[in-house]
């Protein structure tokens, strides 16, 4: 049932009319081919062959009942005619009887009268012919209706196995699987970072800003959190355009202050490190409430193990195509960067990796497709220097340059939905595109 097909741009897309929908695409390094997931259209149920069959049958039933009505009307009209002529027939019959018993009684006038009466009855012949035809038609229709009810019963039996709601649920599930499948197909190794685009200059030297990292999401809101020390005020803008212009925002006052700039918004909730603790808090924006908080066991905090720029950046939360992550370190790990994959509902740690890279020497880090990329500085001349692959628990030194325009990066996070890097650079909110090198498969699940 699941279908993930990677097609090349040159290939013909199945058209939506054929019941197929194209989900999304991701460009490769040269923009040469597009990786696309095609899936049955959302209204797949309508296009189900059984539904089509059922619709045809309904139409047939409608056609038949229309025919029946016509037949009924004709029968009624004809019956009237037959009734009217009945008395006439009786008269003719009586006259014929008299004439046959007493031929002499049939004078020319009487003969003419009888002839006229028979002429009047002549139209009855086609009516009777029609009756014979109708009788045949009724027989055929009856057979057809009988056939039909058998087919309908068979279909009903088959459909009984999954009712409509269940079918819809299956489609939704398939859709979710396709989205994650699409994301994995679009995944790859970071090979380049574009020139920066400065979206806005706002706030102090240190801070954090973001959009929702959940895939799929139609949430366009932008959040901004100025400062790294004991902040509680989160500004929420309706759209990126509103953020750019500094208009249309609401404020959230967090029940507990934050530390650092490693916050992330995932599926409508803000995940952040509680001030002077290694507690992670999940704050739900819509209900303006804390859904869960949990200590990240052993994680250093209170500016014990920050990135090179300091600022209580001990615990850095982030999300990529694979879900939610925490990047931090512990005393047993001797200050080397540790990665933990987190369960977004309970904040439980699912799996942990020790990268061996000293956190103090890292400017920032961000996760793309399950790989952690680490910069070697927050200052001018910084580059992406180290990559840790969680899929193979291995690392590699890299040399990926990027333009650090304002020379002081205090936040750098990848948004998997938009495939861009969000950074806070010396009071500027800056975006970068990323180039991911990917091996395009021609088919697979
Ligand atoms: C119903 O009648 C219409 C018009 O006579 C015809 O075009 C159509 O094919 C019929 N449908 C079925 C299912 O027999
Ligand atoms: C009814 O079904 C039988 C057996 O499938 C078939 O031979 C017959 O032609 C059908 N009758 C009609 C009116 O469709
Ligand atoms: C691990 O992930 C990287 C990209 O993040 C990818 O290039 C590499 O092929 C993956 N390795 C395996 C064994 O899947
Ligand atoms: C996203 O949040 C909704 C409720 O707001 C929840 O039902 C859903 O399971 C969450 N999805 C994920 C992947 O966490
Ligand atoms: C955090 O650090 C500050 C300044 O170094 C210190 O005064 C405070 O006691 C520390 N708090 C905790 C909970 O470690
Ligand atoms: C990223 O690429 C897209 C498409 O080429 C472009 O519209 C957008 O402005 C770019 N963004 C950045 C930050 O370079």
Please describe the structure with a list of short key phrases separated by commas or semicolons.
alpha+beta, Neuraminidase, 2 domains, four-stranded antiparallel β-sheet, 6 helices, 34% strand, disordered N terminus, binds 2-acetamido-2-deoxy-beta-D-glucopyranose
Walk me through this protein's architecture.
31% of the residues lie in helices and 34% in strands. The N terminus and C terminus are likely disordered. Helix 2 packs antiparallel against helix 3 and helix 2 runs antiparallel to helix 4. Strands 3, 4, 21, 22 and 23 form a 5-stranded antiparallel beta sheet that branches. The chain is an alpha+beta fold and 445 residues long. The structure holds 2-acetamido-2-deoxy-beta-D-glucopyranose (6 copies). The site of one 2-acetamido-2-deoxy-beta-D-glucopyranose has 8 residues, from loops.
Average of the residue pLDDT scores: 79
The CATH class of the largest domain turns out to be Mainly Beta
Main pleated sheet: 5 strands, antiparallel
Instruction: Output the structural class.
Output: alpha+beta
Radius of gyration: 39 Å
* Helix content, binned percent: 25-40%
What's the N-to-C terminus distance?
A: 10 Å
The percentage of residues in β strands lies in: 25-35%
Q: Which homologous superfamily in CATH is the superfamily of the largest domain?
A: TolB, C-terminal domain
Examine the coordinates and then state which fold CATH places here, giving the name of the CATH topology of the largest domain: Neuraminidase
Strand tally? 23
Runs in which pLDDT lies below 50 for 5 or more consecutive residues are 1-47, 440-445
Query: Order of SSEs, N→C?
Result: EEHHHHHEEEEEHEEEEEEEEEEEEEEEE
- Structural shape: rod-shaped
Instruction: Provide the number of structural domains.
Output: 2
- Ligands bound to this protein structure: 2-acetamido-2-deoxy-beta-D-glucopyranose
CATH architecture of the largest domain: 6 Propeller
